[in-house]
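Q: Convert this sequence to C-alpha coordinates.
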Amino acid sequence: MMLWKTAGRCAVCAAALLLASFPLLAQKEHTAAPAAKSGAATGKSDANGKPAAAPAPTAPAEGPAPQPQSPQAAVGEFQPVLHAQGAKIATCMDTIVGESAAVIDAPHTAISSWSTAAPNDNLFLSIVGLNYANNKATPNGAAILFAAPLGSGKCEGSTVQIYPFAQSCSALQASLIKEGHTIATLRALPVVETKNGYRDVLIPTAGSGCVLVSVGMRQ
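A:
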Protein backbone atom coordinates (compact mmCIF):
# COMPACT_ATOMS: atom_id res chain seq x y z
CA MET A 1 0.00 0.00 0.00
CA MET A 2 1.33 3.42 -0.84
CA LEU A 3 0.34 6.70 0.79
CA TRP A 4 0.30 10.00 -0.97
CA LYS A 5 0.06 13.33 0.91
CA THR A 6 -0.75 16.63 -0.73
CA ALA A 7 -0.16 20.06 0.78
CA GLY A 8 -3.19 21.01 2.84
CA ARG A 9 -5.08 17.76 2.33
CA CYS A 10 -4.40 14.08 3.06
CA ALA A 11 -5.97 11.27 1.14
CA VAL A 12 -5.15 7.65 1.53
CA CYS A 13 -5.53 5.15 -1.26
CA ALA A 14 -4.81 1.47 -0.91
CA ALA A 15 -4.24 -1.21 -3.50
CA ALA A 16 -4.04 -4.88 -2.59
CA LEU A 17 -2.23 -7.59 -4.44
CA LEU A 18 -4.40 -10.35 -5.89
CA LEU A 19 -3.09 -13.75 -6.95
CA ALA A 20 -5.04 -16.24 -9.03
CA SER A 21 -6.04 -19.57 -7.49
CA PHE A 22 -5.38 -22.92 -9.07
CA PRO A 23 -8.64 -24.49 -10.41
CA LEU A 24 -8.50 -28.11 -11.57
CA LEU A 25 -10.91 -30.85 -12.72
CA ALA A 26 -12.94 -32.61 -10.01
CA GLN A 27 -12.54 -31.00 -6.64
CA LYS A 28 -13.09 -31.07 -2.88
CA GLU A 29 -12.46 -28.52 -0.16
CA HIS A 30 -10.85 -28.79 3.24
CA THR A 31 -10.39 -26.54 6.26
CA ALA A 32 -7.14 -25.99 8.13
CA ALA A 33 -5.00 -23.04 9.11
CA PRO A 34 -1.74 -22.50 7.20
CA ALA A 35 0.92 -24.37 9.10
CA ALA A 36 4.07 -22.61 8.05
CA LYS A 37 4.15 -19.62 5.78
CA SER A 38 5.60 -17.05 8.13
CA GLY A 39 7.95 -14.56 6.56
CA ALA A 40 9.21 -14.81 3.03
CA ALA A 41 9.55 -18.56 2.81
CA THR A 42 9.93 -19.89 6.30
CA GLY A 43 7.27 -22.49 5.64
CA LYS A 44 9.54 -24.02 3.06
CA SER A 45 12.09 -24.94 5.66
CA ASP A 46 9.91 -26.28 8.45
CA ALA A 47 9.68 -29.92 9.52
CA ASN A 48 7.63 -30.74 6.42
CA GLY A 49 9.73 -28.69 4.02
CA LYS A 50 6.95 -26.16 3.30
CA PRO A 51 7.39 -22.24 3.31
CA ALA A 52 4.80 -23.90 6.43
CA ALA A 53 -11.81 -37.02 -0.75
CA ALA A 54 -15.23 -40.92 -1.75
CA PRO A 55 -14.30 -41.33 -5.41
CA ALA A 56 -16.49 -41.98 -8.40
CA PRO A 57 -14.18 -43.20 -11.18
CA THR A 58 -15.48 -42.86 -14.70
CA ALA A 59 -12.37 -43.37 -16.83
CA PRO A 60 -11.61 -46.51 -18.89
CA ALA A 61 -10.01 -49.48 -17.17
CA GLU A 62 -6.48 -48.46 -18.17
CA GLY A 63 -6.95 -44.74 -17.73
CA PRO A 64 -6.89 -42.49 -14.65
CA ALA A 65 -10.09 -41.87 -12.71
CA PRO A 66 -10.67 -38.18 -11.88
CA GLN A 67 -12.76 -37.42 -8.81
CA PRO A 68 -16.01 -35.42 -8.72
CA GLN A 69 -16.61 -32.20 -6.83
CA SER A 70 -17.69 -32.38 -3.22
CA PRO A 71 -18.26 -29.87 -0.41
CA GLN A 72 -15.88 -28.54 2.18
CA ALA A 73 -14.48 -31.10 4.62
CA ALA A 74 -13.03 -30.85 8.12
CA VAL A 75 -9.42 -30.78 9.23
CA GLY A 76 -7.79 -34.20 9.01
CA GLU A 77 -9.91 -35.38 6.10
CA PHE A 78 -7.25 -34.94 3.44
CA GLN A 79 -8.96 -35.34 0.11
CA PRO A 80 -6.13 -37.30 -1.59
CA VAL A 81 -6.37 -39.81 1.27
CA LEU A 82 -10.15 -40.08 0.92
CA HIS A 83 -9.74 -40.61 -2.81
CA ALA A 84 -7.13 -43.33 -2.26
CA GLN A 85 -9.36 -45.05 0.29
CA GLY A 86 -12.25 -45.02 -2.14
CA ALA A 87 -10.00 -46.50 -4.82
CA LYS A 88 -9.07 -49.38 -2.47
CA ILE A 89 -5.37 -48.48 -2.53
CA ALA A 90 -3.45 -50.27 0.21
CA THR A 91 0.25 -50.55 -0.67
CA CYS A 92 0.82 -46.79 -0.97
CA MET A 93 -1.72 -45.64 1.61
CA ASP A 94 0.86 -44.73 4.25
CA THR A 95 2.85 -42.79 1.67
CA ILE A 96 -0.24 -40.88 0.53
CA VAL A 97 -1.17 -40.07 4.13
CA GLY A 98 2.35 -38.84 4.88
CA GLU A 99 2.54 -36.74 1.74
CA SER A 100 -0.87 -35.20 2.39
CA ALA A 101 0.09 -34.28 5.94
CA ALA A 102 3.32 -32.74 4.69
CA VAL A 103 1.87 -30.46 1.99
CA ILE A 104 -1.76 -29.76 2.94
CA ASP A 105 -1.98 -27.10 5.64
CA ALA A 106 -4.96 -25.02 4.51
CA PRO A 107 -8.46 -25.28 3.01
CA HIS A 108 -7.97 -27.26 -0.17
CA THR A 109 -9.53 -28.74 -3.28
CA ALA A 110 -8.11 -31.90 -4.85
CA ILE A 111 -8.43 -34.01 -7.95
CA SER A 112 -6.95 -37.53 -7.91
CA SER A 113 -6.28 -40.09 -10.63
CA TRP A 114 -5.38 -43.77 -10.66
CA SER A 115 -5.75 -46.90 -12.77
CA THR A 116 -9.24 -48.32 -12.30
CA ALA A 117 -8.08 -51.72 -13.59
CA ALA A 118 -5.45 -52.23 -10.88
CA PRO A 119 -5.36 -49.22 -8.52
CA ASN A 120 -3.14 -50.92 -5.96
CA ASP A 121 -0.49 -51.79 -8.55
CA ASN A 122 -0.13 -48.46 -10.36
CA LEU A 123 0.62 -44.79 -9.89
CA PHE A 124 -1.66 -42.63 -7.75
CA LEU A 125 -1.66 -38.90 -8.54
CA SER A 126 -3.38 -36.04 -6.77
CA ILE A 127 -3.34 -32.32 -7.61
CA VAL A 128 -4.31 -29.98 -4.77
CA GLY A 129 -5.27 -26.31 -4.74
CA LEU A 130 -4.65 -24.49 -1.45
CA ASN A 131 -6.16 -21.28 -0.13
CA TYR A 132 -4.55 -19.17 2.60
CA ALA A 133 -7.31 -16.63 3.25
CA ASN A 134 -5.38 -14.79 5.97
CA ASN A 135 -2.09 -14.60 4.11
CA LYS A 136 -2.10 -11.56 1.83
CA ALA A 137 1.43 -12.23 0.62
CA THR A 138 0.64 -15.75 -0.59
CA PRO A 139 -3.14 -16.28 -0.70
CA ASN A 140 -2.99 -19.34 -2.96
CA GLY A 141 -0.76 -22.33 -3.60
CA ALA A 142 -0.80 -25.75 -5.17
CA ALA A 143 0.65 -29.19 -4.49
CA ILE A 144 1.06 -32.37 -6.53
CA LEU A 145 1.36 -35.78 -4.86
CA PHE A 146 2.74 -38.91 -6.53
CA ALA A 147 2.78 -42.42 -5.06
CA ALA A 148 3.72 -45.62 -6.87
CA PRO A 149 4.22 -49.23 -5.68
CA LEU A 150 7.70 -50.69 -6.12
CA GLY A 151 6.81 -54.33 -5.50
CA SER A 152 7.15 -56.45 -2.38
CA GLY A 153 4.69 -54.19 -0.59
CA LYS A 154 6.91 -51.11 -0.90
CA CYS A 155 5.96 -47.68 -2.20
CA GLU A 156 7.76 -44.52 -3.22
CA GLY A 157 6.34 -41.06 -3.63
CA SER A 158 7.20 -37.45 -4.31
CA THR A 159 5.58 -34.06 -3.86
CA VAL A 160 5.74 -30.77 -5.72
CA GLN A 161 4.59 -27.60 -3.99
CA ILE A 162 4.02 -24.31 -5.82
CA TYR A 163 3.73 -20.93 -4.11
CA PRO A 164 3.61 -17.52 -5.83
CA PHE A 165 5.15 -14.70 -3.78
CA ALA A 166 4.91 -10.95 -4.28
CA GLN A 167 8.52 -10.44 -3.20
CA SER A 168 11.57 -11.00 -5.38
CA CYS A 169 13.40 -14.30 -5.82
CA SER A 170 16.57 -12.76 -4.40
CA ALA A 171 14.70 -11.91 -1.19
CA LEU A 172 13.25 -15.44 -0.99
CA GLN A 173 16.64 -16.99 -1.64
CA ALA A 174 18.20 -14.90 1.11
CA SER A 175 15.53 -16.15 3.53
CA LEU A 176 15.84 -19.80 2.46
CA ILE A 177 19.63 -20.02 2.75
CA LYS A 178 19.44 -19.06 6.40
CA GLU A 179 18.67 -22.74 7.06
CA GLY A 180 19.52 -24.24 3.68
CA HIS A 181 22.03 -23.70 0.90
CA THR A 182 22.04 -22.98 -2.82
CA ILE A 183 23.07 -26.15 -4.67
CA ALA A 184 22.64 -25.10 -8.30
CA THR A 185 21.56 -22.42 -10.72
CA LEU A 186 19.49 -23.75 -13.61
CA ARG A 187 20.16 -21.09 -16.22
CA ALA A 188 18.94 -18.12 -14.18
CA LEU A 189 16.91 -20.15 -11.66
CA PRO A 190 18.51 -20.74 -8.24
CA VAL A 191 17.89 -24.08 -6.50
CA VAL A 192 18.02 -24.10 -2.69
CA GLU A 193 18.12 -27.33 -0.70
CA THR A 194 16.46 -27.03 2.70
CA LYS A 195 17.70 -28.71 5.87
CA ASN A 196 14.92 -31.29 5.41
CA GLY A 197 16.04 -32.27 1.92
CA TYR A 198 13.47 -30.35 -0.12
CA ARG A 199 14.75 -28.64 -3.25
CA ASP A 200 13.26 -25.23 -3.93
CA VAL A 201 13.44 -23.74 -7.41
CA LEU A 202 12.88 -19.97 -7.57
CA ILE A 203 11.25 -18.67 -10.76
CA PRO A 204 10.98 -14.88 -11.30
CA THR A 205 7.60 -13.67 -12.56
CA ALA A 206 6.99 -11.07 -15.25
CA GLY A 207 6.63 -8.46 -12.51
CA SER A 208 8.81 -8.31 -9.41
CA GLY A 209 7.43 -11.46 -7.78
CA CYS A 210 8.69 -15.01 -7.54
CA VAL A 211 7.19 -18.50 -7.83
CA LEU A 212 8.66 -21.08 -5.46
CA VAL A 213 8.53 -24.70 -6.63
CA SER A 214 9.51 -27.17 -3.93
CA VAL A 215 10.22 -30.83 -4.76
CA GLY A 216 10.49 -33.61 -2.18
CA MET A 217 10.67 -37.41 -2.14
CA ARG A 218 9.14 -39.87 0.31
CA GLN A 219 9.70 -43.61 0.75
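Helices lie at 79-86, 93-103, 169-176.
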